[in-house]
Amino acid sequence: MGNRQVASAGISPSTIGPRVYLGIGMPAKTIDEYLSQLPPDKRSALQALRETIGAAAPAAVEVISWRIPWFKYKGQYLVAFAAFTNHCSLAPWGTGSLTSLAEKHGIDLSKYDTTKGLIRFSPDKPLPSALVKRIVKAKMQEIDAGAA
């Protein structure tokens, strides 16, 4: 990832994502390790998502927390992404939900499989870069405004 600062946050006993382990049974400590354990289609989709997030938030820091990849911005969680058995996901973090973030910033999510907090997608149908960038930038605006 070039000059991107990479950090490893503490691993919480609770897990909100898949249990992706290294060969010795330890959780991944970096996003590269996390991605290396995935099937090629999910690895490729999440690597592209990682690059899009990094481009939208060049000051963000990559971390592993709760056993999944996150980007932190100004010390606060920005977005997470993860692979699951039947899908991949993108999840902005904060006191508000994805749906309220989308409503507040005029982001149309009607074409996507969403929950209150995340967007699900399949590796063969990745999220459009423009959508990811809008979500990331909207979340950064909330952090900048102290609303996250």
Written account of the structure:
- The chain is an alpha+beta fold and 148 residues long.
- It has one domain: Aspartate Aminotransferase, domain 1, CATH 3.90.1150.
- Helices cover 32% and strands 20% of the residues.
- It contains four helices and six strands; from the N terminus they run ααββββαββα.
- It has a six-stranded antiparallel beta sheet.
- The longest helix has 17 residues, at 40-56.
Quick rundown:
The chain is 32% helix and 20% strand. The protein is α+β, with helices and mostly antiparallel strands and 148 residues long.
As residue ranges, the low-confidence spans are: 1-25
State the CATH topology. Aspartate Aminotransferase, domain 1
Helix content: 25-40%
Largest sheet: 6 strands, antiparallel
Give the arrangement of secondary structure elements.
Layout: H1 31-36, H2 40-56, E1 61-65, E2 68-73, E3 76-83, E4 88-92, H3 98-105, E5 113-114, E6 119-121, H4 129-144
Antiparallel strand pairs: 1-2, 2-3, 3-4, 4-6, 5-6
Helix pairs in contact: 2-4
